[in-house]
Amino acid sequence: MALAMCVLAVAACSTGPVKRVSEPTASIQQLTVGADGQWTVELRLQNFSSVPMRFERIALDLRAGKESAGTLRAEPGLTIGPEAADTAVVKLVPSAAARLTIADALADRRSLDYGLEGTLVASPQDRKARDFEIRRNSALSPVPGLPGVMR
């Protein structure tokens, strides 16, 4: 009986760690307003899975304050390790209303709410790509000493 218990215990250990795939998230790490009015958005992509994830496509509608700014689209082809994060840079020509909203927030040196809604397409290690729905609401604040930059 003791031998059987030892064999079962060793067999249980040989299966290795559990491979868990969790929903990734996206948030804005930094938004920079260019002299030409174009925005450079650094998206922070967070992998909460216990395996690496390859981020294939991004399609996220961006809201600045209450104004629709446009859609952030990219194909970063970025692999992020387990329980880690990285950034993808996306350029956006925002709507006129969103441009005014962020310009006012920068001029007044105040925070601005933002929202992201859409899809991240990512593939867990050795698996088929999946669509992950993203809904994120947060805020950005002007960065002292860096004109046109919000974090």
UniProtKB/TrEMBL annotation:
It comes from the Bacteria. This is LEA type 2 family protein.
